[in-house]
Design goal:
mainly alpha; single chain; ScdA-like_N_sf; DUF1858 domain-containing protein; SP0561-like; two-stranded parallel ribbon
Length: 75
């Protein structure tokens, strides 16, 4: 059974539900996600699509990587 990620949820909520997402997002270019306090501040208002746009990361590629890691995407 795959793990469903709701892209409308905040990065904080997604990482609380799936703690392994911190490492996955860091690998995908969200290098500051593991910085102290980042998840508890910006992560509470930031969504993955917004963060991808800010970082210049193609959202479709990000979705493909998440799917390869066993996550399904709910938009």
């Amino acid at each position: 059974m795959s793990k469903a990620i709701d892209l409308s949820k905040s990065v904080y909520d997604i990482c609380k539900e799936y703690p392994e997402m911190i490492g996955i997002l860091k690998e995908m270019g969200f290098e500051n996600i593991s910085a102290p306090g980042m998840l508890n501040t910006a992560g509470r208002i930031m969504t993955i699509p917004k963060g991808a746009a800010m970082k210049g990361i193609e959202l479709q590629k990000l979705k493909e990587i998440l799917a390869a890691k066993g996550f399904s995407i709910k938009e």
